Structure formats: C-alpha cells, structure tokens
Amino acid sequence: MAKLLQAPPKFLPPEWYVANKVQYSGAEAQRSRSERLVDESQRLVDEIEKTTQKTQSDVNKKIEQRLQEIKFWKQQLNDKLDQITKETEALLAFRSRLEKALEGCKEPLFIAQECLLNRERRVGIDLVHDEVERELIKEVEVLQGVIALLGRTLEQANEQIRLNRSSKYNLEKDLKDKLTALSIDNYCSSLTNNTPDVAYAQNVVKVEENSVSPKEWVDFSNMNVEKADKQRNNSLALRALIDTILSQTASDMRKQNDVVNTAFRARVKETEDAKSKLEMHLAKVMEEISSQEKNVESLWKAILDKEGPAKVAQTRLETRTHRPNVELCRDKVQCRLMHEVQEISHNIQRLKETLAQAQAELKGLNRRQLSLEEEIEVKANTLYIDQVLCMQMRESISINNY
C-alpha cells in the first residue's frame, strides 16, 4: 500500500527556475504576438471598414448615376412615345380622309358611267361621238385614275400606321423595362446596412448569360428612339403627300366635272336650237302642204272645169260635119273650133302634168313632214337624256376637299 502511494519525483531548484523562465518568456512572446495581432486586426478592421464604406459609397454613386441614366432614357422614350402616338393618331385621321375621298369617288364615277350608258339610248343622227361623250370618257378615266391613286396611297398609309405601331410597341416595351429597372435600382438605392430585409443571397456574383454591355444597352434604346424618329418623319412626309394628293385629285375631279357640265350645257343648247329650227321648218312645211293641197284641188277643179268647154267644142265640130254639100265649108268657125278643141286638149294636158307635179311635191312634203317629225322626236329624246337623265343626275355630284 505504501508503494502504491509513492510521491511524484521532485524537481531540482534550477529546473524550477528554468521552468518559470520558460513560462515567463513564452507568456511574453504570446502576449507580444497577441498585441501585434490585435494591432494588425484593428488596422485591418479600420482598413476594411474604410474600404467597405468607400466601395459602398461608390456603389451608391454608381446606382445614382445609373438611375439618372435610366431616367434620361425613360424621358427620351416617353417623349418619342408621345410623339409617335400623336403622329399615329394624326395619320389615322388622314387615313379616314383617304377612305372618305375613295368613297366619295364612287358616286361621280357611277354617274359618269350612267351618263355614257344613257347617251347610248340616243337614236339616229344624234348618236354622235360628240364633245360631251369625249369629256365623259375622260371623266371616267380621271375618276378611275384618282381611285387607283387613292387606293395605293391608302395602302401606304396602312403600312405606315403598322410601322408606327411597331415603333410604338418597341418604345412601350423598352419603357416598361426601364420602369422596372428604375424601380429595382430605386429599391437598391434605398437599402442601407440597417435595412431589415437585407439578407445573404447565394450565387449572386456571376454574369448573367443574357446580360448586355452598357454600350449595347445604350445602343438598344437609341435604336428604338431613332426608329421612332424615322417612322415619325416618314409619317409626316406621307401626311403631307396625302394632303397634296387629296387637294390635287379634288381639283382635277372638280375641273373635269365642270368641263363635262359645260359641254352638256353647250350640247343641250345646240340640240334645242336644232329642234327649234326643225319645228320652224316643220311649221313651214305644214303650211306648204296645206297650200299644195289647195293647189291640187284647184288643178283638179280646173281640169274638171274644162270638160264643159271641151264637150261643147267637140259637139259643135261633130254637129257641123253634118252640113250638106257645099255647106261643109272649112270656114273660120270650123278653123276656130278645131283650134279650140286642140287648145283645150293641150291645156288639159298641161293641167294634168302640173297636177302630177303638184301631187308628187305634196308626197315629198308629206315625207319631209314625217322626216322632220321623226327628227324632232330624236332631238326631244336626246334632250330628255341629256337634260333629265344626265344633267339632273349630275347635280347630285358633290366633290369635297376631304
């Protein structure tokens, strides 16, 4: 038992002094290293704090700069969006004017074509290729040309409206992204070290695959702005062209309409004058027919009136042939009776020839009467077509500046 409870070996005093010195020197070294570490740590903390604050301050400035850049381009996009929107609305109004102008051409074209069809119902010599017909054909060509031009211009307007809307869509999309980016960077700008909802995030220090460079970012918005400007300028030029086309086509249509109406009035006056002269000649022919009929009756009566003298003269001659013997003398009475019979026969023949001429002339006058009446009907038909069917219909033509 005594052996088990043996005391540990004792060290010598020198060993004790040495051990203490080792402890003293070790502690001093440890303390010295610790002091240096504390000093270095404080310097590091101070350095890192300054670096962190400087970096964070620089980041805050960069965010502010970025916010200003976004705001600048947002304003640019807003301005261009407002301009292209107003320009598109203005072009839509011009398109409406084009559509109304196109619609407005339909009635004049229909009327011009109807006038040509109606004038095909003229008859006889009045079915003439006159100035009215030439101008009506020209009017149809003018109207068809105007309709074709307005149709092509309308297609241009529709295409430009599509391009304007495409630019507007790109601006709106870009602007929407800018607003989102502005909201995000505004939120980032508001964050501080004491903001409650800040937290660590994993895998944030990376470059997104779909990210772009600052130059690409600027170029993208600048391209949208330039496209909007280009389409707006094209739209402005197209509106100016449309305005000129509408004004010019309306002027051309109005001018040709006036020319046709003037030709119609002149032709109607010519036809009325011709009809009036024909009626005057008809009246004279009717008077002459009446006079000739009386002449025929007079000739017939004259021929009939000669029957008595002829019979008397011939009876006298026949009776005197019964004179006896020497009394059958060719005396003056006999000679005169013979001359009287011949004279009466000759005169009756002359009267019959004149009667035949008078009857032939009367037939000619009757034919002329029918011809004049027919021609007057032709002129009346032409006047009805030109005055009633055509000119009254043309009064409804209204050519407006749309």
UniProtKB/TrEMBL annotation:
It comes from the Eukaryota. Residues 268-295, 341-375 form a coiled coil. One of its GO terms (cellular component) is microtubule cytoskeleton. The keyword ATP-binding does not apply. It is found in: Cytoplasm, Cytoskeleton, Cilium axoneme; Cytoplasm, Cytoskeleton, Flagellum axoneme. Belongs to the tektin family. This is Tektin.
